[in-house]
Specification:
The protein is mainly alpha-helical and about 170 residues long. The chain has one domain. Helices cover about 40% and strands about 0% of the residues. The chain is built from 7 helices and no strands.
Length: about 170
């Protein structure tokens, strides 16, 4: 048993500071970073939490001719985008905003919106259709997603084209 005051009292000591910066030296290390092209989305903390929040919306969704799994996958991705724009994890307002953009929370969506969402949401829940999912997410403008929850709700009610980027209208 060590005596008090001896060097053996210490159980852990941190390693010395590394003088040389870390470098990519293994074959699996990526030397490129996301260049902001949008193909990889926007990173945010704990984005998977949005899938847990979906349970609060399932019984309220009016998906029409869109498969429920596709509506959920597409809107969860949009909710994750909105949350990442604010640098936080998704909350229920992010999901509600995403579902409202495409009229999934109302029973009186316009024919134009129904047609738009049928073409955009086709098979986006399938992992082989990541490109289509990214295209869907990119149809909703960042500026629109940065608006408050009440602004999104009122603008979607007034104009079904409000959420969409001008280049995609």
């Amino acid at each position: 048993m060590p005596q008090k005051g001896s060097n053996l009292d210490s159980v852990y000591s941190s390693p010395p500071r590394r003088v040389v910066p870390a470098q990519q030296s293994r074959p699996g290390d990526s030397s490129t970073h996301n260049n902001g092209s949008g193909a990889l989305g926007s990173a945010g903390p704990d984005q998977g939490y949005a899938y847990k929040l979906v349970d609060h919306f399932r019984d309220r969704l009016n998906t029409g001719n869109v498969e429920t799994k596709d509506a959920i996958a597409g809107c969860v991705a949009i909710a994750m985008k909105r949350a990442s724009l604010f640098g936080r994890a998704p909350v229920s307002h992010d999901l509600e905003a995403a579902f409202r953009c495409f009229g999934f929370l109302s029973s009186d969506a316009s024919a134009e919106l129904l047609q738009r969402r049928e073409s955009l949401f086709r098979e986006v829940a399938n992992h082989h259709h990541y490109t289509e999912l990214r295209e869907l997410v990119d149809t909703v403008s960042d500026d629109f997603l940065r608006k408050s929850h009440s602004e999104i709700e009122s603008e979607c009610s007034a104009d079904p084209n409000a959420p969409f980027s001008p280049k995609n209208n």
